[in-house]
Design a protein that fits this description.
Layout: H1 2-29, H2 37-47, H3 53-78, H4 82-98, H5 103-118, H6 129-147, H7 155-180, H8 184-196, H9 200-216, H10 225-257, H11 264-289, H12 294-314, H13 322-343, H14 348-356
Helix pairs in contact: 1-2, 1-6, 2-3, 2-6, 3-4, 3-5, 3-6, 4-5, 7-8, 7-9, 7-10, 7-11, 8-10, 9-10, 10-13, 11-12, 11-13, 12-13, 12-14
Protein backbone atom coordinates (compact mmCIF):
# COMPACT_ATOMS: atom_id res chain seq x y z
CA UNK A 1 0.00 0.00 0.00
CA UNK A 2 2.78 2.43 0.93
CA UNK A 3 4.61 1.64 -2.32
CA UNK A 4 1.48 2.31 -4.36
CA UNK A 5 0.93 5.61 -2.58
CA UNK A 6 4.50 6.65 -3.37
CA UNK A 7 4.01 5.73 -7.01
CA UNK A 8 0.70 7.61 -7.22
CA UNK A 9 1.90 10.72 -5.38
CA UNK A 10 3.74 12.38 -8.33
CA UNK A 11 0.76 11.93 -10.63
CA UNK A 12 -1.66 13.21 -8.01
CA UNK A 13 0.55 16.24 -7.33
CA UNK A 14 0.83 16.98 -11.05
CA UNK A 15 -2.93 16.74 -11.52
CA UNK A 16 -3.73 18.97 -8.53
CA UNK A 17 -1.10 21.51 -9.58
CA UNK A 18 -2.24 21.66 -13.20
CA UNK A 19 -5.93 22.03 -12.30
CA UNK A 20 -5.21 24.77 -9.76
CA UNK A 21 -2.88 26.70 -12.04
CA UNK A 22 -5.35 26.46 -14.94
CA UNK A 23 -8.12 27.83 -12.70
CA UNK A 24 -5.94 30.70 -11.46
CA UNK A 25 -4.88 31.69 -14.97
CA UNK A 26 -8.40 31.61 -16.34
CA UNK A 27 -10.10 33.25 -13.33
CA UNK A 28 -7.55 35.75 -12.01
CA UNK A 29 -5.16 36.44 -14.87
CA UNK A 30 -7.64 36.34 -17.78
CA UNK A 31 -10.73 37.24 -15.76
CA UNK A 32 -13.08 34.55 -17.04
CA UNK A 33 -16.28 34.08 -15.01
CA UNK A 34 -16.75 30.54 -13.69
CA UNK A 35 -13.78 28.96 -15.55
CA UNK A 36 -14.76 25.38 -14.77
CA UNK A 37 -13.52 24.07 -18.12
CA UNK A 38 -9.92 25.11 -17.46
CA UNK A 39 -9.23 22.69 -14.57
CA UNK A 40 -11.47 19.98 -16.03
CA UNK A 41 -9.60 20.06 -19.34
CA UNK A 42 -6.28 19.91 -17.48
CA UNK A 43 -7.39 16.83 -15.55
CA UNK A 44 -8.65 15.05 -18.65
CA UNK A 45 -5.39 15.67 -20.53
CA UNK A 46 -3.26 14.48 -17.62
CA UNK A 47 -5.42 11.39 -17.34
CA UNK A 48 -4.42 10.41 -20.86
CA UNK A 49 -1.39 8.18 -21.45
CA UNK A 50 1.76 10.12 -22.23
CA UNK A 51 2.44 10.08 -25.92
CA UNK A 52 -1.15 11.02 -26.81
CA UNK A 53 -1.55 14.23 -24.82
CA UNK A 54 -0.88 16.61 -27.73
CA UNK A 55 -3.59 14.93 -29.76
CA UNK A 56 -5.79 14.72 -26.67
CA UNK A 57 -5.52 18.48 -26.07
CA UNK A 58 -6.51 19.19 -29.65
CA UNK A 59 -9.51 16.90 -29.37
CA UNK A 60 -10.62 18.45 -26.09
CA UNK A 61 -10.42 21.97 -27.47
CA UNK A 62 -12.33 20.98 -30.60
CA UNK A 63 -14.90 19.06 -28.57
CA UNK A 64 -15.53 21.87 -26.13
CA UNK A 65 -15.69 24.42 -28.93
CA UNK A 66 -18.20 22.38 -30.94
CA UNK A 67 -20.34 21.64 -27.89
CA UNK A 68 -20.34 25.24 -26.73
CA UNK A 69 -21.17 26.61 -30.17
CA UNK A 70 -24.08 24.24 -30.75
CA UNK A 71 -25.43 24.63 -27.21
CA UNK A 72 -25.32 28.40 -27.18
CA UNK A 73 -27.02 28.68 -30.56
CA UNK A 74 -29.76 26.23 -29.58
CA UNK A 75 -30.34 27.75 -26.13
CA UNK A 76 -30.48 31.26 -27.57
CA UNK A 77 -33.08 29.98 -30.05
CA UNK A 78 -35.15 27.50 -28.00
CA UNK A 79 -34.30 28.42 -24.43
CA UNK A 80 -33.57 25.78 -21.79
CA UNK A 81 -35.47 22.61 -21.00
CA UNK A 82 -35.83 19.02 -22.14
CA UNK A 83 -36.40 19.89 -25.80
CA UNK A 84 -33.31 22.08 -25.94
CA UNK A 85 -31.28 19.41 -24.17
CA UNK A 86 -32.39 16.73 -26.67
CA UNK A 87 -31.68 18.94 -29.69
CA UNK A 88 -28.28 20.05 -28.37
CA UNK A 89 -27.08 16.51 -27.66
CA UNK A 90 -28.43 15.22 -30.97
CA UNK A 91 -26.77 18.00 -32.99
CA UNK A 92 -23.50 17.64 -31.04
CA UNK A 93 -23.06 13.87 -30.96
CA UNK A 94 -24.44 12.80 -34.37
CA UNK A 95 -21.98 14.69 -36.64
CA UNK A 96 -19.02 13.63 -34.51
CA UNK A 97 -19.96 9.96 -34.57
CA UNK A 98 -20.53 10.17 -38.32
CA UNK A 99 -17.08 11.76 -38.75
CA UNK A 100 -15.44 8.99 -36.72
CA UNK A 101 -14.42 11.21 -33.81
CA UNK A 102 -12.82 9.55 -30.80
CA UNK A 103 -14.83 8.80 -27.69
CA UNK A 104 -12.90 11.52 -25.85
CA UNK A 105 -13.94 14.14 -28.37
CA UNK A 106 -17.59 13.03 -28.36
CA UNK A 107 -17.83 12.94 -24.55
CA UNK A 108 -16.14 16.31 -24.10
CA UNK A 109 -18.41 17.96 -26.64
CA UNK A 110 -21.53 16.40 -25.10
CA UNK A 111 -20.57 17.34 -21.54
CA UNK A 112 -19.79 20.90 -22.57
CA UNK A 113 -23.15 21.23 -24.28
CA UNK A 114 -24.94 19.57 -21.36
CA UNK A 115 -23.37 21.94 -18.85
CA UNK A 116 -24.47 24.97 -20.81
CA UNK A 117 -28.07 23.79 -21.15
CA UNK A 118 -28.52 22.56 -17.57
CA UNK A 119 -26.29 24.75 -15.40
CA UNK A 120 -24.93 27.75 -17.24
CA UNK A 121 -27.18 28.95 -20.00
CA UNK A 122 -25.71 31.80 -22.06
CA UNK A 123 -26.87 35.31 -21.26
CA UNK A 124 -27.55 36.52 -24.77
CA UNK A 125 -23.98 36.72 -26.07
CA UNK A 126 -21.42 34.43 -27.62
CA UNK A 127 -18.21 35.24 -25.76
CA UNK A 128 -15.91 32.18 -26.19
CA UNK A 129 -14.88 31.90 -22.54
CA UNK A 130 -15.22 28.15 -22.41
CA UNK A 131 -13.20 27.56 -25.55
CA UNK A 132 -10.39 29.65 -24.08
CA UNK A 133 -10.69 27.83 -20.76
CA UNK A 134 -10.24 24.47 -22.46
CA UNK A 135 -7.20 25.79 -24.30
CA UNK A 136 -5.70 27.12 -21.07
CA UNK A 137 -6.32 23.86 -19.23
CA UNK A 138 -4.78 21.78 -22.01
CA UNK A 139 -1.73 24.00 -22.29
CA UNK A 140 -1.13 23.94 -18.53
CA UNK A 141 -1.49 20.15 -18.45
CA UNK A 142 1.07 19.73 -21.24
CA UNK A 143 3.49 22.07 -19.48
CA UNK A 144 3.14 20.29 -16.12
CA UNK A 145 3.47 16.83 -17.66
CA UNK A 146 6.68 17.79 -19.42
CA UNK A 147 8.44 19.44 -16.48
CA UNK A 148 9.81 16.20 -15.06
CA UNK A 149 10.87 14.88 -18.46
CA UNK A 150 12.27 18.10 -19.90
CA UNK A 151 15.79 17.67 -18.58
CA UNK A 152 16.24 14.01 -19.54
CA UNK A 153 13.46 13.19 -22.00
CA UNK A 154 14.91 9.83 -23.03
CA UNK A 155 15.78 8.56 -19.54
CA UNK A 156 12.45 6.76 -18.88
CA UNK A 157 12.63 5.11 -22.31
CA UNK A 158 16.23 3.95 -21.77
CA UNK A 159 15.29 2.53 -18.37
CA UNK A 160 12.27 0.71 -19.80
CA UNK A 161 14.30 -0.71 -22.71
CA UNK A 162 17.09 -1.99 -20.48
CA UNK A 163 14.68 -3.50 -17.98
CA UNK A 164 12.60 -5.20 -20.67
CA UNK A 165 15.51 -6.90 -22.39
CA UNK A 166 17.20 -7.76 -19.08
CA UNK A 167 13.99 -9.40 -17.80
CA UNK A 168 13.69 -11.39 -21.01
CA UNK A 169 17.31 -12.53 -20.82
CA UNK A 170 16.85 -13.52 -17.16
CA UNK A 171 13.77 -15.49 -18.16
CA UNK A 172 15.78 -17.44 -20.71
CA UNK A 173 18.44 -18.05 -18.07
CA UNK A 174 15.83 -19.49 -15.72
CA UNK A 175 14.52 -21.63 -18.56
CA UNK A 176 17.99 -23.02 -19.18
CA UNK A 177 18.38 -23.88 -15.49
CA UNK A 178 15.00 -25.64 -15.43
CA UNK A 179 15.98 -27.75 -18.43
CA UNK A 180 19.44 -28.61 -17.15
CA UNK A 181 17.98 -29.70 -13.79
CA UNK A 182 14.94 -31.38 -15.37
CA UNK A 183 12.85 -29.37 -12.90
CA UNK A 184 9.21 -29.46 -13.92
CA UNK A 185 8.07 -26.98 -11.26
CA UNK A 186 10.76 -24.49 -12.26
CA UNK A 187 9.77 -24.88 -15.91
CA UNK A 188 6.15 -24.06 -15.07
CA UNK A 189 7.31 -21.05 -13.05
CA UNK A 190 9.19 -19.83 -16.12
CA UNK A 191 6.05 -20.34 -18.20
CA UNK A 192 4.05 -18.23 -15.74
CA UNK A 193 6.69 -15.50 -15.88
CA UNK A 194 6.66 -15.61 -19.68
CA UNK A 195 2.91 -15.08 -19.71
CA UNK A 196 3.24 -12.10 -17.38
CA UNK A 197 5.73 -10.52 -19.79
CA UNK A 198 3.21 -10.39 -22.63
CA UNK A 199 2.63 -6.66 -22.15
CA UNK A 200 6.28 -5.59 -22.02
CA UNK A 201 6.46 -4.66 -25.72
CA UNK A 202 3.34 -2.53 -25.32
CA UNK A 203 4.87 -0.76 -22.31
CA UNK A 204 8.07 -0.10 -24.25
CA UNK A 205 6.05 1.28 -27.14
CA UNK A 206 4.15 3.56 -24.76
CA UNK A 207 7.46 4.81 -23.33
CA UNK A 208 8.67 5.52 -26.87
CA UNK A 209 5.51 7.51 -27.66
CA UNK A 210 5.96 9.52 -24.45
CA UNK A 211 9.60 10.26 -25.28
CA UNK A 212 8.65 11.29 -28.80
CA UNK A 213 6.02 13.67 -27.46
CA UNK A 214 8.56 15.30 -25.16
CA UNK A 215 11.17 15.63 -27.92
CA UNK A 216 8.68 17.29 -30.27
CA UNK A 217 8.27 20.06 -27.69
CA UNK A 218 12.06 20.63 -27.55
CA UNK A 219 13.32 22.04 -30.82
CA UNK A 220 17.00 21.47 -30.02
CA UNK A 221 16.43 17.79 -29.26
CA UNK A 222 14.17 16.86 -32.15
CA UNK A 223 17.12 15.27 -33.93
CA UNK A 224 16.81 12.41 -31.41
CA UNK A 225 13.39 11.49 -32.76
CA UNK A 226 14.95 9.04 -35.20
CA UNK A 227 16.26 6.90 -32.33
CA UNK A 228 12.81 6.93 -30.73
CA UNK A 229 11.23 5.83 -34.01
CA UNK A 230 13.72 2.96 -34.12
CA UNK A 231 12.46 1.82 -30.73
CA UNK A 232 8.86 2.02 -31.92
CA UNK A 233 9.73 -0.18 -34.91
CA UNK A 234 11.59 -2.64 -32.68
CA UNK A 235 8.65 -3.22 -30.35
CA UNK A 236 6.77 -5.21 -32.99
CA UNK A 237 9.60 -7.73 -33.24
CA UNK A 238 10.06 -7.69 -29.47
CA UNK A 239 6.44 -8.70 -29.05
CA UNK A 240 7.10 -11.69 -31.31
CA UNK A 241 10.25 -12.59 -29.36
CA UNK A 242 8.31 -12.58 -26.08
CA UNK A 243 5.63 -14.82 -27.62
CA UNK A 244 8.34 -17.16 -28.93
CA UNK A 245 9.95 -17.41 -25.50
CA UNK A 246 6.54 -18.29 -24.10
CA UNK A 247 6.31 -21.19 -26.56
CA UNK A 248 9.87 -22.20 -25.63
CA UNK A 249 8.84 -22.29 -21.98
CA UNK A 250 5.77 -24.39 -22.78
CA UNK A 251 7.88 -26.93 -24.69
CA UNK A 252 10.42 -26.96 -21.87
CA UNK A 253 7.67 -27.72 -19.38
CA UNK A 254 6.60 -30.64 -21.55
CA UNK A 255 10.16 -31.94 -21.77
CA UNK A 256 10.66 -31.80 -17.99
CA UNK A 257 7.28 -33.45 -17.39
CA UNK A 258 8.39 -36.41 -19.50
CA UNK A 259 11.58 -36.60 -17.41
CA UNK A 260 13.57 -36.93 -20.60
CA UNK A 261 17.26 -36.19 -20.18
CA UNK A 262 18.10 -32.79 -21.59
CA UNK A 263 21.04 -32.68 -24.02
CA UNK A 264 23.69 -30.27 -22.70
CA UNK A 265 23.74 -28.55 -26.10
CA UNK A 266 20.20 -27.34 -25.49
CA UNK A 267 21.26 -25.43 -22.39
CA UNK A 268 24.19 -23.93 -24.28
CA UNK A 269 21.90 -22.83 -27.11
CA UNK A 270 19.47 -21.12 -24.76
CA UNK A 271 22.36 -19.47 -22.90
CA UNK A 272 23.62 -18.05 -26.20
CA UNK A 273 20.10 -16.85 -27.01
CA UNK A 274 19.88 -15.12 -23.62
CA UNK A 275 23.20 -13.40 -24.32
CA UNK A 276 21.86 -12.27 -27.68
CA UNK A 277 18.77 -10.75 -26.04
CA UNK A 278 20.89 -8.92 -23.48
CA UNK A 279 23.20 -7.56 -26.18
CA UNK A 280 20.18 -6.42 -28.22
CA UNK A 281 18.96 -4.43 -25.23
CA UNK A 282 22.43 -2.89 -24.83
CA UNK A 283 22.40 -1.90 -28.51
CA UNK A 284 19.03 -0.20 -28.14
CA UNK A 285 20.09 1.66 -24.99
CA UNK A 286 23.39 2.71 -26.56
CA UNK A 287 21.59 4.10 -29.60
CA UNK A 288 19.31 6.15 -27.34
CA UNK A 289 22.00 7.49 -25.01
CA UNK A 290 24.80 7.98 -27.53
CA UNK A 291 27.33 6.98 -24.85
CA UNK A 292 28.48 3.77 -26.49
CA UNK A 293 28.73 2.17 -29.90
CA UNK A 294 25.37 0.51 -30.66
CA UNK A 295 26.91 -1.29 -33.61
CA UNK A 296 29.26 -3.20 -31.34
CA UNK A 297 26.41 -4.49 -29.20
CA UNK A 298 24.29 -5.25 -32.27
CA UNK A 299 27.14 -7.29 -33.76
CA UNK A 300 27.46 -9.22 -30.50
CA UNK A 301 23.72 -9.90 -30.46
CA UNK A 302 23.94 -11.11 -34.05
CA UNK A 303 26.83 -13.43 -33.28
CA UNK A 304 25.20 -14.86 -30.15
CA UNK A 305 21.85 -15.44 -31.88
CA UNK A 306 23.49 -17.29 -34.79
CA UNK A 307 25.57 -19.30 -32.34
CA UNK A 308 22.39 -20.34 -30.53
CA UNK A 309 20.94 -21.54 -33.82
CA UNK A 310 24.11 -23.47 -34.75
CA UNK A 311 24.26 -25.25 -31.40
CA UNK A 312 20.56 -26.12 -31.41
CA UNK A 313 20.62 -27.36 -35.02
CA UNK A 314 23.27 -30.00 -34.20
CA UNK A 315 20.73 -31.71 -31.93
CA UNK A 316 18.63 -32.61 -34.96
CA UNK A 317 21.37 -34.93 -36.23
CA UNK A 318 20.66 -37.50 -33.50
CA UNK A 319 16.85 -37.72 -33.91
CA UNK A 320 15.91 -36.19 -30.52
CA UNK A 321 12.49 -36.62 -28.88
CA UNK A 322 9.71 -34.36 -30.22
CA UNK A 323 9.86 -31.75 -27.40
CA UNK A 324 13.56 -31.19 -28.11
CA UNK A 325 12.85 -30.85 -31.82
CA UNK A 326 10.16 -28.27 -31.08
CA UNK A 327 12.52 -26.31 -28.81
CA UNK A 328 15.17 -26.30 -31.55
CA UNK A 329 12.65 -24.91 -34.02
CA UNK A 330 11.57 -22.27 -31.53
CA UNK A 331 15.18 -21.21 -30.92
CA UNK A 332 15.46 -20.59 -34.66
CA UNK A 333 12.23 -18.56 -34.81
CA UNK A 334 13.22 -16.51 -31.75
CA UNK A 335 16.63 -15.76 -33.26
CA UNK A 336 15.00 -14.63 -36.52
CA UNK A 337 12.60 -12.21 -34.81
CA UNK A 338 15.32 -10.89 -32.51
CA UNK A 339 17.68 -10.20 -35.40
CA UNK A 340 14.92 -8.57 -37.42
CA UNK A 341 14.41 -6.17 -34.55
CA UNK A 342 18.11 -5.29 -34.71
CA UNK A 343 18.97 -5.45 -38.41
CA UNK A 344 15.61 -5.13 -40.12
CA UNK A 345 14.14 -7.69 -42.49
CA UNK A 346 17.04 -7.81 -44.94
CA UNK A 347 19.06 -11.05 -45.18
CA UNK A 348 18.12 -12.32 -41.70
CA UNK A 349 16.46 -15.53 -42.84
CA UNK A 350 19.29 -16.50 -45.18
CA UNK A 351 21.92 -15.95 -42.47
CA UNK A 352 19.95 -17.96 -39.91
CA UNK A 353 19.37 -20.79 -42.39
CA UNK A 354 23.06 -20.78 -43.25
CA UNK A 355 23.89 -21.11 -39.55
CA UNK A 356 21.61 -24.15 -39.38
CA UNK A 357 23.23 -25.64 -42.46
CA UNK A 358 20.35 -25.16 -44.81
CA UNK A 359 21.44 -24.14 -48.29
CA UNK A 360 19.28 -23.24 -51.26
Amino acid sequence: MIRRLRQAAPRALAAATAATVAWLIAADLIGHPDPIFAPSAALVVLGETRGRRLRQTTEIVLGVAAGVLVAELVVLTLGTGAVALFVVLLLTITPMLAAGASSTLVVQAALSALYLVVAAAPQGNLIPYRFADALIGGAVAIAVSQLAAARRPLAPLVTEARQTYADLADLLGALRDALENCDERAAHDVLDRAQRMNGCAERLHAAALAAGETLRLHLRRRRRLEQVRNVEATTHHLDLVVANVGVLARNAATLTRLHTSTPPELGRAIRALANAVRAAGDALAADLTGRDDPGRHAAQADADALEAVRIAAKLLESEPPPPVTMIVGQVRITAVDLLRGIDGEEDVLSRVDEAIGWHP
